[in-house]
Amino acid sequence: MQSQLRQKIIVVKAVIHCICILLLVNEYWLALNDGLGADPVEAVLHFTGIGALNLLIISLSITPVIRLFKFTSLINYRRMLGVYSFVYALMHLLSFLAFEVQFDWRLFITEIIERPYMTLGMAAIVILLSLTLTSTARVKRKMGKSWQKLHNWVYLAIILASVHFYMSVKSDVVQPIIYATIVAILLWFRRKKFQKYL
Amino acid sequence: MRIKIPKSWQLTANDVTDESVYRQRRTLLKNMGFLGAGALMSTPAHSLDWFSKSAKKTFITEPLTYLPQSDKQQILTPESKVISHNNFYEFGASKSDPVNNAQSFQTNPWQLTISGQVENKIILDYDDLTRLFALEERIYRLRCVEAWSMVIPWVGFQLSTLLAKAKPLSSAKYVAFETLEDPEQMPGQASRRLGGGINYPYVEGLRIDEAENPLTLMAVGLYGKTLPPQNGAPIRLVVPWKYGFKSIKSIVGITLLDKQPPTTWNQLAANEYGFYANVNPGVDHPRWSQASERRITTGGLLARNRIDTQMFNGYGEQVAHLYKGMDLRANY
Question: What positions does the domain Ferric oxidoreductase occupy (chain A) (predicted)?
């Protein structure tokens, strides 16, 4: 029974790996071959940015879904979805560096400093990076109580990411507002956690 | 020996690539097996988008008779990109929406009214747009405030010739423009979600001396044919030294006024979009550095196409005098 469950988890994990990687590979393949419309740079930036936010939302939905539907085995996939969110966010940042500003480091740095929405996005990536680096079981054991403290920063990361999205659009704010609403619902589930900060 | 001095808007002699070179390169890439099936589709392929490839209606453009621009010394943005990458919120706020949503747009019959402080009120119908004035080709750089740019071979006539026909009164100081309002044909006007939440009809304006500048073009075509609707059929403005949003599309009204007209993006976010909107590498938009831009030419993700932005988009020689003594930081 136990091994059957383990096998099932491995299969589901493999499927998640495949989906996350293949979508990314497919997007860059199309972009390299000029198959994403007139501006592949913009297309890739949107895809990786929205993808990172989607994955973060999915990973933060797992706890509420387990509470509501007792679907406990989902917990096995939360970490990898979180890590993939960082992978997409990293691709988003690297694509901006490589294809948008084309390794103009000065422009890259001044843009991140001077454009508030980019500063927020960068902050979210730094948080996700630190969570990814501390995501292994070994580090978690070593960090003890401070691990949970650090990983609570994910809530700030998702707020920063959705504000970054909202501020980056010109006027078509409907989509960012939908995302912000979803994020607000996810945070509302954790309201007890935040009470001590309020 | 005949020494030919091109007018500076006719673009300089470096980086020469024209369409034939572009085609050869495509053929070469194809022969090398570099272009996937995705590159051959006219509309962008989205991941997991298996269902939207059904045969779609395409707007029919007509060839135009015009005086070609003799010096074709710019890398033209490929026609396929010029007609598939558009900001035209009337047909949707994403860049690929207009080409997908505008193909059944009706441009004939059309009525363009020139009125306000003029001696002769003029109403042009569809045929007048291409037949009333001699058409000429103008290859212009188009710089979007979002920091991408294109080089487009427009076909059209100078706005000044149209204005001369209407005979502006001496009290006329500004020229206001208005896009068609027709929510039935323009889904972005019918739905706030699709239309990006801006006010319709779209309005724009120029000072009369800007409007009468020889560079200011009323375009009725590109790449030798009439405009497709996503590019502003049947007639649009092209003001090459200003950011793209000034070049209002699908115009139905031109009104001469004694005071500055409201403009759409300025009404929406006055701190971001000024009335003048002159391309100026020294004055940043809050979200985009204007110091440089990505020129959309051929190629995919790896195209090395970031270039410095020029003051007045490189048309300073023709237009700088219009702004003598003005603080372009305050009048952005």
Answer: 50-161
Pairing type for strands B225-226 and B251-257 reads unpaired
Mutation site, A33, A108, A173, interface B, largest B CB count within 10 A: A33
The residues with which B268 forms a beta bridge, in sequence order, are none
- Residue of A18, A28, A39 to mutate when probing chain B, most B C-beta within 10 A: A39
Q: Cβ contacts (< 8 Å) between B192 and chain A: which residues?
A: 174
Q: Can you list the domains of chain B with their CATH numbers?
A: 13-323 (3.90.420.10)
Closest residue by Cα to residue B190 from B76, B69, B92, B51: B92
Residues of chain A found within 8 Å of residue B293, distances taken between Cβ atoms: none
Cis omega (within 30 of 0) for bond into B109:
yes
Query: How far apart are alpha carbons B289 and B286 in whole angstroms?
Result: 8
Range of the domain at A100: 2-195
CA A74 to CA A59: how far, in whole Å?
Answer: 10
Task: Tell me: ipTM over 0.95.
Answer: no
**Would you tell me how many other CB atoms lie within 10 Å of the CB of residue B18?**
13
Per-residue pLDDT, averaged over B57-85, amounts to 91
Cβ neighbors of B129 (< 8 A, separation 6 or more) are B110, B112, B220, B234, B235
Give CA–CA dist B76/B141, Å, rounded: 9
Q: State the pTM of this model.
A: 0.84
Q: How far is B81 from chain A (nearest CA, A)?
A: 5
Contact B274, B266 (CB under 8 A): yes
Q: 3-state DSSP: chain B helix, strand, coil percent, rounded to 5?
A: 25, 20, 55
Domain count, chain A: 1
pLDDT tens-place string over residues B131-158: 999 999 999 999 999 999 999 999 999 9
